[in-house]
Specification:
57% of the residues lie in helices and 2% in strands. The protein is mainly alpha-helical and 242 residues long. It has a two-stranded antiparallel sheet with strand order 1-2. Helix 2 packs antiparallel against helix 7 and helix 8 crosses helix 12. It starts with a helix and ends in a 19-residue tail after the last helix. The relative contact order is 0.13. The N terminus is likely disordered.
């Protein structure tokens, strides 16, 4: 059966919210782990291996993958200050190391705010694992559609032209289309605006051509999956020396 816009918007963040709630009920020290090279137990004898397994239950990762992310977390959290937390600058640097610089700059703060689930201005280890799970190539495409819509939905259950332009921008930047347009002395900004206008005109089921419901947006993404390539991020590089 077809879901209403309200039901769809409610379900969009269900997985992420469940992960956040489950992560926050774990031992607080899990959220900011010590160096992965050290064998760790807490006061009641829970080992890091057991914690990795618990985290794996609520993400798309296997326990060994969570353990590998532990070292990546330590690397990223030390890009600026070695404090066991990832701040907005370090998060942006991690994206810059693994994707087009302009694309990283355009999405880093919005993604950071989404994954800083306790709103303390930093990303902990648990939040880091949750974020990379939702951005993993293992995450279903449907969840990436939901997450990207949620990032730009202003609370109305619809996204407008500016929001769609922000969603499409990383793909245009990462593919080099904007740069090639500028090299050919074309108006790169206008090229992107035309692409957005075209998408709105063809996908807005209301016929107004100025906004999309979630169902409209999902249809657009299914026909143009390249626009969500930035939603699949693998941190191959986490230090400046790599």
């Amino acid at each position: 059966s077809t879901q209403s816009t309200g039901d769809r918007c409610t379900s969009m963040s269900a997985t992420a919210d469940r992960l956040a709630n489950d992560l926050h009920r774990l031992d607080p020290e899990l959220m900011s782990p010590p160096p992965a090279s050290r064998v760790q137990t807490d006061d009641i004898g829970i080992t890091w291996s057991e914690r990795y397994e618990e985290l794996a239950e609520f993400t798309y990762f296997e326990p060994d993958e969570v353990a590998a992310l532990h070292q990546k977390f330590n690397d990223v959290s030390g890009l600026r200050v070695q404090d066991g937390r990832i701040d907005p600058v370090e998060f942006k640097c991690a994206l810059v190391l693994n994707m087009n610089n302009q694309a990283a700059a355009s999405i880093s703060q919005r993604l950071f705010d989404r994954f800083d689930t306790d709103r303390n201005g930093t990303i902990s280890f648990g939040e880091f694992v949750m974020a990379l799970s939702l951005l993993s190539p293992k995450a279903p495409f449907e969840e990436k559609v939901q997450l990207s819509f949620e990032l730009y939905d202003n609370g109305t259950g619809r996204i407008g032209k500016h929001a769609l332009q922000c969603i499409m921008l990383p793909s245009f930047q990462g593919s080099g289309r904007l740069q090639r347009a500028e090299m050919c002395e074309l108006n790169a900004e206008r090229m992107l605006e035309n692409a957005v206008d075209h998408a709105m005109w063809h996908c807005d089921s209301s016929g107004q051509g100025d906004s999309m419901s979630f169902e409209d947006y999902r249809s657009f993404c299914e026909r143009n999956p390249q626009n969500l390539e930035w939603m699949s991020i693998v941190l191959n590089h986490t230090t400046w020396s790599e």
